[in-house]
């Protein structure tokens, strides 16, 4: 590619659903606005009800752009902003992969070794299990983001998506993308398979332990403690596998957008419901909070 054909790109245009009718774009805006409001409200309620919170979803760094792009038929994002969004989105996604495996290990210890739970999951262990997913997630993602940040872009700066993702940036880049494709292949497979494998192994032992519980009530109680986590794991890995680990040639652009919407918008909305509102302690706290304000 001749240097004369390259331009210095300072911003991108997120097209989102800009090719839709204006009335439909406004409808999409209000739908996403309601979903975003419910997501924030649910998590704020959890923060109010508990003194220490657990990070359940990635930061809200994408949905505001969807709202703006849907209402305006597109939204500009600066080049540094695009790269930053891609970095934090990828980092939190990898982090959640490891956090879900940590949560499965926590349930494994609680169900298989209930009498030794406090000694196994002591303070130092909990700190390491919480810190290392974040360290690994953002360190590994930094390795992948460096080549993308050095991409050259020609005339086209329109991203046919509603957030900055690696695939759309590769599509409009006039640089050689073989390095980032190699890095993605080398790192993405173990980053998804290893945590997923740990989850599967943990639940194999959990189910074997539950089957040995003599009472039906005891089995139901043990299963109920795992159901919320399994639902979230299924939604999270289901969308990731469909989006990143299946041949992209088999997906239309619209299908990729829908899958991305499920992963970035709808899954965060239902996470508070699945994780917390099904929890008996949270329900008791809600009832107590209602009683205190009457």
From TrEMBL:
Gene3D superfamilies: Rhodopsin 7-helix transmembrane proteins. GO terms for molecular function: G protein-coupled receptor activity; olfactory receptor activity. It is a multi-pass membrane protein. InterPro entries: GPCR_Rhodpsn (IPR000276), GPCR_Rhodpsn_7TM (IPR017452), Olfact_rcpt (IPR000725), Olfactory_GPCR1 (IPR050939). Keywords: Cell membrane, Disulfide bond, G-protein coupled receptor, Glycoprotein, Membrane, Olfaction, Receptor, Sensory transduction, Transducer, Transmembrane, Transmembrane helix. It is found in: Cell membrane. Residues 24-275 form the G-protein coupled receptors family 1 profile domain. The chain crosses the membrane at residues 27-50, 129-149, 191-211, 223-246, 258-277. GO terms for cellular component: plasma membrane. Belongs to the G-protein coupled receptor 1 family. This is Olfactory receptor. It comes from Hymenochirus boettgeri (Congo dwarf clawed frog). The lineage of its organism: Eukaryota, Metazoa, Chordata, Craniata, Vertebrata.
